[in-house]
Write a structure and sequence with these properties.
By secondary structure, this protein is mainly alpha-helical. Helices cover about 80% and strands about 0% of the residues. The N terminus and C terminus are likely disordered.
């Protein structure tokens, strides 16, 4: 749809989305260089995985309260506060780096603080969209929102170059600048009052936390969807937490950046495809397709220590993420009443990501203490599985990818066997066919 033919809601969304996209680029640059700094400085998969642990746990613990806040207060202002405070965290890191005193624990702390703010930001942002965008465009809009994840994964290619030219401090400066851009875009977007705080939102935050879970229990198909999505997130966390160590086991940081960018291109293209297509009419089919293809492509990661193989398998796997995510988010946005959407999204975030910290805690000991010894040249699996995927450094990580891929295929078969999940698209819609277009005097500042 051309800008001239776009509804006011779509134009407002485009401005907010552009600001958030630029901000995500800066945050991804910082996350990558800090991860490389920790891994190269310690040589420990466990300490590297702890960064991801810190990036997930605060969001899980606080998500229900973030959902209650998103239903009670102005969602645009929540995003503004979250973005601004995240920028201050980056400024604090910049000061520490400039003084030459950066320590691993400070990286963990900054990651946890940013994750906390991101939890409030993401829930408010996701809850705002269906009130701003006409229902028939939700699938496409959610597909476009997946592009931010593609940029986030592709950022390492740029980060590697920036790290060489401007160093860690320069990357942090770029992050601060992009955060300012996001805040400015939000300030310029004049959003209707009914989009930032829908009518009927709860005034009781504590009761609201319980309300999200109660509402979800009353929709068994959605509850089954979130359960499947939670298992998928666990498997994805295992693979996502180990993909960089897998690549670094046979390649340099420069190659890692290139391959991460290649993977991100798959997510980027997937987001574009979903932005144009919007996904299948029955959203649950997108879930099935994403699960099945994802399992196949994870298995391919394990077959050989080859940059070329990863360069093909990673983009193919990440191409499936927008399909999965768009289907799930669009189902929630269309089936859940706007006044309770924030609280439901908060509960969904907890249920769907609760097992991810377990994955991040497991992958270090599982890799260093179990999988790598099994796949050593004289390991117990050297003559069997090793004959297929190879032995030596990094092949234990490849073994984990193989197992995770097979488990994802099994999850696909199980999901298809659930009658309630197959019928989830038949639940009544809770949003109107057209997003509201209030008068200008009700726009939020």
């Amino acid at each position: 749809m051309s800008p001239e033919g776009a509804s006011p809601g779509l134009r407002r969304f485009a401005l907010v989305w552009a600001g958030q996209l630029v901000s995500v680029i800066g945050s991804a640059l910082t996350a990558f260089v800090l991860g490389v700094w920790v891994y190269q400085g310690t040589g420990s998969v466990t300490q590297f995985a702890l960064i991801q642990f810190c990036a997930v746990v605060p969001g899980i613990l606080l998500a229900p309260y973030a959902g209650a806040v998103a239903d009670r207060y102005d969602r645009k202002r929540i995003m503004l506060v979250a973005d601004s405070c995240a920028g201050l965290v980056t400024v604090a890191l910049l000061v520490v780096v400039s003084s030459g005193g950066l320590a691993v624990w400070q990286v963990y702390l900054a990651t946890a603080l940013t994750a906390t703010l991101n939890s409030f930001h993401v829930i408010a942002y996701t809850a705002l969209v269906p009130s701003l965008v006409p229902k028939e465009h939700l699938g496409r809009v959610n597909g476009l929102m997946q592009i931010t994840q593609g940029v986030q994964i592709a950022a390492p290619l740029v980060a590697g170059a920036l790290l060489a030219f401007v160093g860690l401090r320069g990357v942090l400066v770029v992050d601060v600048v992009t955060m300012v851009f996001a805040v400015t875009a939000l300030l310029l977007a004049r959003l209707p009052g009914s989009t930032v705080r829908p009518a009927g939102a709860s005034e009781d935050g504590e009761r609201g936390v319980r309300a999200g879970l109660s509402w979800l229990r009353g929709a068994p198909g959605l509850f089954a969807l979130i359960a499947v999505f939670g298992v998928w997130n666990f498997l994805f966390a295992v693979a996502g937490g180990l993909v960089q160590p897998l690549i670094l086991s046979f390649s340099s940081p420069a190659v890692l950046g290139a391959l991460m960018a290649a993977g991100g291109s798959g997510l980027f293209v997937g987001g574009l495809v979903m932005g144009v297509w919007g996904g299948p009419k029955r959203r649950v089919r997108g879930v099935y397709l994403g699960l099945g293809l994802g399992g196949v492509f994870l298995v391919l990661h394990s077959l050989a220590p080859s940059p070329w193989l990863i360069g093909l398998a990673a983009p193919a796997f990440l191409f499936t993420l927008p399909l999965m995510n768009t289907a799930c988010v669009t189902l929630l946005q269309t089936k859940v009443a706007p006044a309770v959407l924030g609280r439901v999204l908060g509960v969904v975030r907890v249920l769907s990501t609760a097992a991810m910290p377990v994955a991040y805690l497991l992958i270090g000991p599982l890799t260093d203490g179990v999988a790598e010894p099994l796949m050593a040249p004289d390991g117990a699996l050297a003559s069997s599985v090793g004959a297929v995927i190879g032995t030596g450094e990094g092949r234990g990580i490849a073994l984990i990818f193989l197992v995770v891929g097979v488990l994802m295929l099994a999850l696909t078969a199980y999901a298809r066997s659930l009658p309630r999940l197959r019928a989830v698209d038949d639940l009544p819609d809770a949003v109107a066919d057209e997003a509201p277009s209030p008068s200008p005097e009700r726009t939020a500042p």
